[in-house]
Specification:
Chain B: GO terms for molecular function: peroxiredoxin activity. The complex is a heterodimer of chains A (199) and B (191). Chain A has 199 residues and is mainly α. Helix content of chain A is 64%, strand content 0%. Chain A contains ten helices and no strands. A two-stranded antiparallel sheet of chain B has the order 1-2. Classes of the chains: A mainly alpha (199), B mainly alpha (191).
Chain lengths: 199, 191
């Protein structure tokens, strides 16, 4: 048998269950959500985004969504990563500082301006920036923007990442990582809710 | 690069999209990149030539996307999968994604005016019991922390969706929390 399906594992979907059968009808989606996970966390080329950076960002992003089996999984993944245990305290502290409710943010000036919603503009603390380094600190600030106020994103945010040492390819992989996790945490939450409602 | 003319309202019109960082030049694409693009024609798109900087992730993401939305052998009608995508995009604020998937929702449902009301009035527009349930579930899933709960399941069931169709709503809405974040943060739409 291949590597266990991460969404099934995190959602508690047992082989032979009703949801297992439903998921089997979207086999290509199921297999490629798994391949997405593997290509982000077991990449063939980690030269633009290190494995430690991936694990730290994942623990932060899923932690921002609140406590869940997904957040626990990625926190443990960070703890088990080379160099990860030393970052756990800072990541936990930054999750606590960054938690809020989204989505919020601003639209281009015009009729949608009436829907602009103010909210936390998160910045990493000075202490955590020292512990995490400028590159990871910039990543956490951008990840927070992606999680809670994606419509605020601007060209200047790309420049901030480039200035902190991220390459164009690194920005693509890192953006995919955060965006994928936004998908994964929701699929798991949705499937768990459905399973509980069907029990 | 030509001047960007960003739209200031949600629309079903066709929009362009301009990257803020450098896509790969078409001339530099290798077979590894074409595998990532899945459809070779996507080499013409600035968005896909940017995402193909990580070909393995792009390939897996594209195949996930296609099965969630295009595999209509069973489950939720395509129109309502597109509605989930459009509602998620409307709520997250992705004008580009909303334009594409509102158009698809209109095409497959033949309810263009209702789709336009979703864009104009937002996710609280009254679109009838079944669409309201799909939109509300999509919005609850888009919130952070996630607000999707048993009430959403009950509402979808009352509106006539079975569990396989509800999984299609969950997959479609969740996927757009992926897509919206890429489209919104790596570049911008242009009229």
């Amino acid at each position: 048998m291949a590597t266990q399906d991460i969404i099934d594992t995190l959602a508690g979907i047992e082989p032979g269950s009703a949801l297992d059968a439903i998921r089997a009808r979207r086999l290509q989606a199921r297999e490629n959500a798994q391949k997405s996970y593997l290509s982000l966390f077991e990449p063939i080329d980690a030269s633009d985004v290190s494995l430690l950076e991936r694990a730290a960002v994942a623990a932060f992003v899923t932690g921002l969504h609140g406590e869940s089996p997904v957040a626990t999984f990625y926190r443990e993944k960070l703890a088990a990563s080379a160099g990860g245990a030393a970052l756990l305290g800072s990541i936990d502290a930054e999750i606590a500082r960054g938690r809020t409710s989204g989505p919020y943010g601003s639209y281009p000036a015009g009729p949608l301006s009436a829907e602009n919603t103010a909210g936390l503009i998160y910045r990493v603390s000075a202490a955590s920036k020292t512990a995490l380094g400028a590159r990871l600190a910039a990543a956490l600030e951008h990840a927070h923007l992606l999680v809670f106020r994606p419509r605020d994103a601007a060209a200047a945010d790309m420049k901030a990442l480039l200035d902190a040492g991220w390459s164009n390819t690194g920005i693509v992989t890192f953006s995919q990582l955060v965006a994928f996790l936004a998908f994964q945490v929701r699929v798991v939450s949705g499937l768990r809710t459905l399973a509980a409602a069907s029990a | 690069m030509s001047a960007v003319n960003p739209p200031v309202a949600f629309t079903q019109d066709e929009l362009g999209w301009v990257s803020w960082i450098e896509p790969l030049p078409e001339a530099e694409l290798t077979e590894r990149h074409y595998a990532g693009l899945v459809d070779r024609a996507r080499a013409k798109s600035e968005y896909f030539r940017l995402l193909v900087r990580d070909p393995e992730v792009l390939e897996a993401r594209t195949k996930t996307d296609k099965d969630i939305f295009y595999n209509v052998a069973d489950g939720l009608p395509r129109a309502e999968r597109e509605l989930a995508a459009a509602a998620t995009s409307r709520y997250n604020g992705c004008i580009y994604c909303a334009s594409v998937h509102a158009r698809f929702a209109s095409t497959y449902s033949k309810r263009r005016e209702d789709v336009q009301r979703l864009l104009d009035e937002g996710v609280t527009a009254d679109l009838g019991e079944r669409w309201n349930a799909v939109v509300k579930a999509s919005v609850a899933l888009a919130e952070t922390p996630i607000a999707f709960g048993p009430d959403n399941i009950a509402e979808l069931r009352r509106a006539g969706l079975d569990d396989a169709e509800i999984v299609d709503v969950i997959n479609g809405a969740s996927f757009f929390n992926w897509a919206n974040r890429l489209m919104l943060s790596l570049g911008e739409p242009s009229k």
